[in-house]
Write a structure and sequence with these properties.
Layout lengths: L7 H17 L11 H21 L7 H18 L14 H18 L8 H24 L6 H7 L2 H6 L5 H19 L8 H27 L39 E9 L26 H4 L2 E6 L1 E2 L4 E2 L31 E10 L9 E2 L3 E4 L4 E4 L4 E4 L8 E9 L3 H5 L21 H11 L6 H13 L5 E2 L11 H8 L1 E2 L1 H14 L4 E7 L3 E2 L5 E4 L3 E9 L3 E4 L5 H4 L44 H36 L5 H14 L10 H16 L5 H19 L8 H18 L3 H4 L11
Parallel strand pairs: 11-12
Antiparallel strand pairs: 1-5, 1-15, 2-6, 2-13, 3-4, 5-10, 7-10, 8-9, 13-16, 14-15, 16-17
Helix pairs in contact: 1-2, 1-5, 1-8, 2-3, 2-5, 2-17, 3-4, 3-5, 3-17, 4-5, 5-6, 8-9, 12-15, 13-15, 14-15, 18-20, 18-21, 19-20, 20-21
């Protein structure tokens, strides 16, 4: 246990704790892609540090600054991460804690499922920020509040633990700066509090020694590690790979926020054209995998998304899969398809392009096999069966790491012209794909669908009007956070908030299509993979997606894409209004349906669009900045009042009382140096007064001087700090000065007190 710093020393100590915490955060940059999370965490730590320093300046309590910092940090976190999406909130409300807790759970899930380095997304930013503030508060409490600065190093080490356990190196500058601030904190706590005369020299020596020790460690470390014995030691490698498999949720709730999806790899696959199949020019397709000879006839975009399952039953808020399955076996050489006329036949190049798809499963644990939405053969080993009603391949065990399967996909040559005059078909599902949930807003949703499609004359034109309405960024904003529900109809709530992710977009288009008597369902799976250097395609958890499928006579279930391009890029060829248009940027405004009455715009105050992530992030910080400003203003006023009250009542510590006495005695010519101990100071004061006034202090004045010296001595060296009323300390100083003034009052008789050097005053 060291002496507890007081006054400016405690403020400097807290500042060093904050600096060491901020420097330690660099240890995480090898695990998390550097981004806004680092700056956000720094700002939070610095604000909390300022609050702790301010509170400690007006109180001697060891726990009050930590409590105040915790409360302020909690308020900022609730405002920053617990605010409802799309709303300005400067003070937490009753639901802020639940929303913050939900975000924290998302952060844990993302960490468990991500590869290193992971993205510094909002949920993980929350966990890092809370952890960093906790590290600072613990370090500050140990070093300043409890006077045990050496133990604060354990708190700083907490931020290094993930990198050490996972075996990912951090920047050398990170450990250098952290070590420097930690050593300076130790030097501050060990330095004598009254060393005024040589403060500059002591500070320089402390900094020089700290820097020298750090440099020596960084230089000698690699050499020492190369010696036999050290070189054979290895750190544990827990977590160097992905942690935890991924699966797709089949109970989609439109009222729940999505958060951030995992970046780990779930599938790898290759796409090659079948020899003898018609060749199409795809040289302009940027997603086509490279080939040694020429570009392939088909690519991942041609094969389309890989669908795991479909959803038909919707209750107004949640999709349900409670109905039973009707499973059967199939011939791996024949096609599986939702169209019974094609199902069971052999692939036919006359109906479209044929492509062989070889798939390898990575970190995906799913009972439904991801397959193309187009007719396809499926060759897979194990206990897998087929559900023709849903067009799903269902397994008893599910997928596992390293599992492989093959498909031959029949990519149809479907165009807008083919669907232009197509009639609505009957999917033979007992009307399930036409059921519309009855809610208090069902009629409003149906009326809005009719208004959007008022100019459409065919089912395809109605579908395109709905898709265009949802994809227009002037109408909707892609956002993984969902606003709190305000009715029993999640589709209507989405229309009001105009913010959501793929589940909201797909569901809304599907339900609106049903109100127009077009059979519709929702498919869930993965968007086409991204090409890697080996010519294959890689699918990560971030490619998970949901989309609507509408049923047309002679064409079966046809996929549409209402989710904005910011997440999905271009829609399918048959659903792309710009297919064949040379200048897609010249889209006429009349092609974008305007928001219907009752649907609010997503424009921010001042007319600035909120469709970009940067603007959303700036708006997210606005309430935090307002809250911090309010907190700091109120706290400053309160601290000023408390400080004024403390000064008026003479709220002194023993060291401050000793310094006050020294200054007042120095003004009367009675001085001492920093080398003098409190005991020698008492003797020195008596001797100087005897020489100047002819007599030492006596009576109450002498007792007051001795009491003050003993108290200062105990505060500096005793294990248990003295508890003395500030009024008593002030009384001792006044009593000493009263006795000195009495002795020096008759200057004409005794002469002026000889001037003495004022070392350290």
């Amino acid at each position: 246990m060291q002496r507890i710093p007081r006054g400016p020393r405690s403020a400097l100590g807290s500042a060093l704790c904050a600096a060491a915490t901020c420097a330690s955060l660099f240890a995480l940059t090898g695990l998390i892609v550097r981004g806004s999370w680092l700056v956000a965490t720094w700002l939070l730590v610095l604000v909390v540090a300022a609050v702790v320093i301010g509170v400690r300046a007006v109180t001697r309590s060891w726990w009050a600054p930590t409590l105040a910092g915790t409360l302020v940090a909690a308020g900022i976190v609730l405002v920053r991460y617990g605010a409802p999406p799309g709303r300005l909130q400067v003070l937490p409300d009753a639901d802020s804690f639940d929303r913050t807790l939900a975000t924290a759970r998302e952060g844990v899930a993302v960490i468990n499922a991500s590869l290193v380095p992971m993205l510094g997304v909002r949920p993980t930013e929350l966990l890092v920020a809370v952890g960093a503030v906790a590290v600072f508060l613990v370090a500050d409490l140990l070093a300043i509040g409890l006077g045990a600065p050496a133990l604060s190093g354990l708190a700083f080490a907490a931020l290094w633990t993930p990198a050490i356990i996972l075996g990912f190196p951090a920047s050398g500058w990170s450990i250098a700066w952290t070590s420097l601030f930690y050593l300076l904190l130790l030097a501050l706590s060990a330095a004598p509090p009254t060393a005024h005369s040589d403060r500059g020299r002591r500070t320089g020596v402390a900094v020089l020694c700290s820097v020298s020790l750090i440099v020596a460690t960084l230089v000698a470390g690699p050499a020492v590690a190369a010696f036999p014995g050290w070189a054979t030691m290895r750190m544990p490698t827990f977590g160097t790979g992905p942690v935890g498999p991924m699966s797709l949720s089949d109970d989609l709730d439109l009222r729940e926020s999505l958060g951030t999806r995992s970046g780990q790899i779930v599938l790898r696959y290759s796409v090659t054209p079948v020899e003898g199949a018609p060749q199409e020019d795809t040289a302009t397709d940027p997603s086509a995998s490279p080939s040694a000879s020429s570009a392939p006839a088909v690519s991942a975009n041609d094969v389309g998304p890989l669908r795991a399952f479909t959803l038909t039953t919707f209750d107004g808020a949640t999709w349900d899969r409670s109905d039973s399955l009707d499973l059967t076996t199939w011939d791996p050489a024949t096609l599986l398809s939702s169209d019974p006329e094609i199902r069971g036949t052999s692939p036919d190049a006359d109906r479209g392009s044929l492509a062989d798809v070889q798939v390898e499963v990575a970190n995906l644990r799913e009972r439904r096999l991801p397959v193309s939405t187009f007719p396809r053969t499926v060759a897979v080993t194990g206990g897998w069966e087929y559900d023709p009603a849903r067009d799903e391949v269902v397994g008893r065990r599910g997928t596992f790491d390293g599992m492989t399967y093959a498909m031959q996909v029949e990519v149809p040559s479907l165009t807008k012209d083919d669907l232009a005059d197509a009639e609505v078909g009957d999917p033979d599902d007992g009307g399930a794909s036409l059921e519309v949930p009855q809610t208090s807003r069902t009629d409003d949703v149906a009326a809005l669908a009719r208004e959007i499609t008022a100019d459409a004359t065919t089912p395809y034109e109605q579908a395109m009007a709905l898709q265009t309405f949802f994809r227009a960024t002037t109408n909707f904003t892609y956002d993984t956070r969902v606003a709190p529900s305000r009715s029993d109809d999640a589709v209507w709530d989405f229309m009001q908030s105009t913010r959501g992710y793929c589940v909201q977009f797909a569901t809304s288009m599907a339900i609106m299509a049903r109100t127009l008597d077009i059979p519709a369902r929702v498919g869930v799976g993965f968007l086409p993979g991204e090409s890697d250097r080996n010519g294959s395609y890689v699918v990560s958890g971030q490619r998970s997606h949901a989309w609507p499928e509408l049923f047309f006579e002679d064409y079966g279930w046809v996929r549409f894409e209402p989710t904005p391009a910011v997440q999905t890029s271009a829609p399918p060829t048959w659903a792309d209004p710009f297919t064949g248009v040379s200048a897609p940027d010249s889209r006429p405004d009349e092609m974008i349906p305007a928001p219907a009455p009752g649907v609010t715009s997503s424009a921010a105050p001042g007319g600035q669009s909120t469709s970009t992530g940067t603007q959303d992030e700036e708006q997210a910080w606005l309430p935090v900045a307002i809250t911090v400003a309010i907190v700091l203003a109120v706290a400053s006023l309160g601290l000023a009042l408390v400080r004024r009250r403390s000064l008026l009542r003479g709220d002194l510590t023993p060291e401050r009382a000793w310094l006050r006495a020294r200054r007042r005695l120095g003004a009367r010519g009675v001085t001492w140096t920093d080398a003098d101990s409190p005991r020698t100071v008492v003797a020195s004061v008596h001797e100087q007064l005897r020489q100047a006034a002819g007599a030492p202090l006596t009576g109450a004045s002498a007792e007051a001087l001795e009491s003050l010296a003993r108290t200062v001595e105990r505060e500096r060296y005793a294990r248990v700090q003295p508890e003395v009323d500030p009024a008593v300390l002030a009384g001792w100083v006044d009593e000493v000065m009263s006795g000195v003034e009495t002795l020096l009052s008759d200057r004409s008789r005794r002469g002026a007190v000889p001037s003495a050097p004022r070392d350290g005053t």
